[in-house]
Design a protein that fits this description.
heterodimer, A: alpha+beta, six-stranded antiparallel sheet, 3 helices, 10 strands, 26% strand, globular, B: alpha+beta, four-stranded antiparallel sheet, 12 strands, 20% helix
Chain lengths: 222, 240
């Protein structure tokens, strides 16, 4: 693996105009304006933050994993990655990253996929897909069809040249963060993953924090 | 198996159809550098569809071949790969866009080239989805049959040439599906030459699935996905 160079953000937390802790297993749905910067903090380390992005102007236009990884020719996201929508529209750009490994193909856990991956009796366990659906159900413009494959910030899903795929211990640690600049009006959907069956959360889901800074010169209300 | 239906998909062409459960769909490439991008939906409820992440993580694989199954977002076995003489089918890389097609192969138009203009996966999918009352919001991650993409440890994605001429893959349907196919280039194929391989699509009745079917016993995860499919059909079946 190539050496990771962490990129810190110059933004000061005391100047953030929004700060919110997302408890383990909870969701967050929020609209960003172009130029606003979103920071997601892995507060206690090794937490997967399942995240989807939509064009606020056209909510049917979801984040596209394949458009994003195709354009950069790389499976993983880090500083400099531009997140594209299915239309090709640029949604977000990663401007800082102190973790270095974010997954694009692991998707979100669901009750049904837990029955497949672990055991039929896992069906009642809390899961990301339920959080996504509960969040999206707040807005009429969204349907289940909008649940495209998501980004998993801080999650480590290595793919080997032989084509093996595993869920490994995260490379994250307490306080590591990723920061994204909104390139358009973007709706952000987060499920702070409650998965207890694999090491993606170190078997102990923990809170994540989101902070937002305004674009310079923009007095936006969120 | 006697084919119930056979058709040839020329380079650039698209096709969609409802295919009932228990069919064997054999795809055969007529040349090398073939790529067939495919989307799968539950025929009666297209909001349920093939889910790339759920499929790959359950089977701990980043490519598809014999023994693998395609799973829906509802944890069900949707289709199985029962035979494969290709070896690697790419589930990660998506489809060619109009912009990428113009950039790589040169801009072509219907006005200049008539039906020889070069088609994109993006437009093929949009048209075939719209035909079934779906829309671009339903474009997910397709399977790229016949293509191989290897990910290096740092995540770099590399298109690898593999022989496809006269090779074939057989997909058995485990549910009633809506199948959407686009014979358009792989988005990471670096060649500047638009592929000229046709794909022969042949559909026959499949043998019934036994408890010891190689796709069922491939791993415990596959068996549970089959059980979810069988349970769903058991619930749907009317009383005798």
């Amino acid at each position: 693996m190539s050496t990771f160079h962490p990129v810190d953000s110059p933004l000061l937390t005391e100047q953030a105009m929004y700060e919110q802790v997302i408890p383990a297993g909870d969701g967050w749905l929020h609209d960003l304006l172009p130029g606003q910067v979103l920071r997601i903090v892995d507060m206690e380390g090794n937490q997967a933050v399942d995240t989807l992005f939509y064009s606020t102007e056209d909510p049917t236009d979801h984040y596209s994993a394949v458009r994003t990884i195709n354009r950069q020719g790389n499976l993983y996201l880090t500083t400099g990655s531009t997140l594209l929508a299915e239309s090709g529209r640029a949604l977000m750009r990663i401007t800082a990253d102190t973790c270095g490994r974010h997954d694009t193909i692991g998707g979100a856990c669901s009750a049904q996929s837990n029955t497949v991956r672990y055991a039929h009796d896992k069906l009642p366990m809390h899961n990301c897909r339920d959080t996504f659906m509960l969040m999206l159900s707040q807005r009429d413009e969204f349907t289940k069809r909008d649940l495209a494959p998501n980004v998993n910030f801080f999650m480590n899903v290595p793919v080997t040249p032989e084509g093996e795929l595993t869920f490994a211990d995260g490379l994250s640690a307490p306080g590591r963060y990723v920061e994204l600049l909104a390139l358009a009006p973007v709706t952000v959907l987060i499920s702070n993953c409650p998965q207890l069956n694999n090491p993606c959360n170190a078997y102990n889901p923990t809170p994540a924090k989101v902070l937002i800074w305004n674009a310079e010169g923009v007095n936006a209300h969120v | 198996m006697t084919a119930l239906f056979t058709m040839t998909m020329q380079p650039g062409s698209k096709w969609s159809a409802h295919v009932g459960r228990g069919k064997a769909i054999t795809l055969t490439a007529t040349g090398d550098r073939a790529n067939l991008s495919a989307l799968f939906f539950h025929a009666q409820d297209p909001a349920e569809r093939y889910n790339m992440p759920d499929t790959l993580k359950a089977q701990h694989t980043a490519f598809l071949t014999t023994g693998n199954i395609l799973m829906t977002d509802q944890g069900k076995a949707l289709a199985s790969i029962t035979e494969d003489t290709v070896g690697w089918h790419d589930p990660l890389s998506g489809y060619t866009t109009r912009q990428a097609t113009d950039e790589r192969y040169g801009k072509t138009t219907y006005q200049d080239q008539r039906n020889d203009w070069l088609r994109s996966g993006e437009e093929n999918f949009k048209v075939e989805l719209f035909r079934h009352n779906l829309s671009p919001r339903d474009i997910g991650v397709p399977v790229n049959f016949f293509s191989k993409v290897v990910c290096e440890l740092d995540g770099t994605m590399k298109y690898m040439l593999q022989e496809t001429a006269a090779r074939s893959v057989t997909i058995r349907t485990e549910m009633d599906i809506l199948l959407v196919l686009s014979n358009t280039p792989h988005p990471l194929d670096p060649s500047g030459q638009y592929p000229d391989a046709s794909i022969v699509v042949s559909v026959a009745d499949a043998e019934p699935v036994s408890e010891m079917d190689p796709c069922v016993v491939h791993c415990e995860e596959n068996r549970r996905a089959f059980e979810n499919t069988w349970n769903a059909y058991a619930l749907l079946k009317g009383a005798n």
